[in-house]
Each structure stands twice: as structure tokens, then as C-alpha cells.
Design brief:
19 strands, Immunoglobulin-like, SDr/BOS_complex, binds calcium ion, signal, five-stranded mixed sheet, mainly beta, 1 helix, Sdr_B, 2 domains, protease, elongated
């Protein structure tokens, strides 16, 4: 036998060892989706983003077993769970749930139990526009102003190249957006006329405030937090 054929025989023996059946798995898993339920139908569809926060696994008496993060694609997976019944859930505080926030699952050896969690946040959206006639209302012929910066605390953002901004899937809180007017411009008068087309910035402190609340399990949406700018 050459050294090559000896190596071949040894490799064959190792391959045979590899065919020994594995012991029946002693654990199972829990997986599912934790997502922002954009169309509020209680089910995940492609394009609905991950819910961000963690998913927890607990014994039926409430004692903690494991916590895993939610992936950006909205999936989560809790591996190596000993067989039995468990509570699995997310922290619902600050959001409108579109599914139960906690369910009981039965984990079987080698099996995968599924639990999905959908929730709805608030979309804070608006535009910055040139209030040409300085009346505090956005008329159809008044142009949007692109790339106007604003700050939320120490986090910088701004309207995009078309004059729009969007902060989707926000939980309950008070959001203070501090806008920075361009050179030679100031803010329109605040809260004059129809709210869909008025200006929401305080001309003195340059801030617009969005208050997201949950009332009777329903979260409020904040469309049209719009900012009018006038020529000085
Ligand atoms: Ca959905
Ligand atoms: Ca106007």
C-alpha cells in the first residue's frame, strides 16, 4: 500500500464514522417574525421592517429563559430550547399591537415553534416650503424647499431633495424637531388656518413638536408636521 492509498483508506474510515446516526435532538427552537405591521393586518408581508427590540422567552411562571434580538429582516430565532411549554413575547409599551404581544408555545425535541408579533408605530412626516405670501398657509403654487436641516436632540436630519422628511414607526414620546432656516429666511406664523396646510414651527424657538400617544390601544399618526419659511 502506498502512502496515498493508505490516506484514502483512512479517509474512507472517517467517512464511515460520519455516517453514524446522530442522537435524537434533545432541544427545539422558537422562531418567527417581529415586525412593524404597516398595513395593520396582523401578518407580516415582504417589505414590512423589523420591530427593532428584543423577543423574550419565559417559563409559564414568568421566569426568564432567553432573550434574542430581532433581525433587520424582521426574523428572530431562539435556538436550543429544552422541550416544554413557554411564554414568548415582546415589550408592547409605546406601540399599537396588531397581534397579541405574548403567546404560549409548545417546543418539541427537534421541532420549531412559531410565534409572530406585529405592532404599529407613528409616522411623523412633513415638508418644508416657501411661504411666498407669508400667510402661514401652503398654497398649491408655493414651492417645497429641499435640504432644510433639523435636529432632534443631538441627532441631525433634514428634508430630502424634494423638501419632504419622514420618521416612520416611532413609539410614544414627545419629539421636538429644531429646524435651521436658510440664510435670509425666517419661519411663517405658526398654526394659522387649516392644519393640513399650516406651518407647525414656533417662529421664536424654531421648533416643531410632535406628541405621539397611545389612546385605547391606538397610536396617533403625525402627518403634515410642515414648516413654512418666509423671505426676510
Ligand atoms: Ca402586515
Ligand atoms: Ca402661503
Amino acid at each position: 500500500m502506498t502512502w496515498r492509498s493508505a490516506a484514502f483508506v483512512a479517509a474512507g474510515a472517517l467517512a464511515l464514522l460520519g455516517t453514524i446516526p446522530a442522537a435524537h435532538p434533545a432541544t427545539g427552537a422558537v422562531h418567527g417574525m417581529h415586525f412593524f405591521d404597516r398595513n395593520v393586518d396582523g401578518a407580516w408581508q415582504p417589505g414590512e421592517p423589523g420591530g427593532g427590540s428584543a423577543v423574550g422567552l419565559y417559563h409559564l411562571d414568568g421566569s426568564w429563559v432567553a432573550t434574542v434580538g430581532t433581525n433587520p429582516d424582521a426574523t428572530y430565532e431562539i435556538p436550543d430550547v429544552p422541550p416544554g411549554q413557554y411564554r414568548v413575547g415582546i415589550n408592547p409599551i409605546g406601540y399599537q399591537m396588531t397581534t397579541p404581544s405574548e403567546v404560549v408555545v409548545d417546543v418539541r425535541p427537534g421541532g420549531t415553534a412559531r410565534a409572530d408579533f406585529g405592532k404599529l408605530g407613528s409616522d411623523i412626516t412633513g415638508v418644508t416650503w416657501h411661504d411666498v405670501n407669508a400667510d402661514g398657509q401652503r398654497q398649491a403654487d408655493e414651492p417645497l424647499l429641499p435640504n432644510i436641516p433639523f435636529w432632534i436632540g443631538r441627532w441631525g436630519s433634514g428634508t430630502d431633495g424634494t423638501g419632504h422628511y419622514s420618521m416612520p414607526n416611532q413609539g410614544t414620546s414627545t419629539y421636538v424637531l429644531r429646524f435651521v432656516p436658510p440664510e435670509g429666511m425666517a419661519f411663517s406664523p405658526q398654526h394659522v388656518g387649516a392644519p393640513e396646510t399650516d406651518s407647525d414651527a414656533d417662529p421664536v424657538d424654531c421648533t416643531a413638536t410632535a406628541v405621539v400617544t397611545l389612546t385605547d390601544g391606538r397610536i396617533n399618526q403625525i402627518p403634515n408636521l410642515d414648516i413654512g419659511l418666509v423671505t426676510k
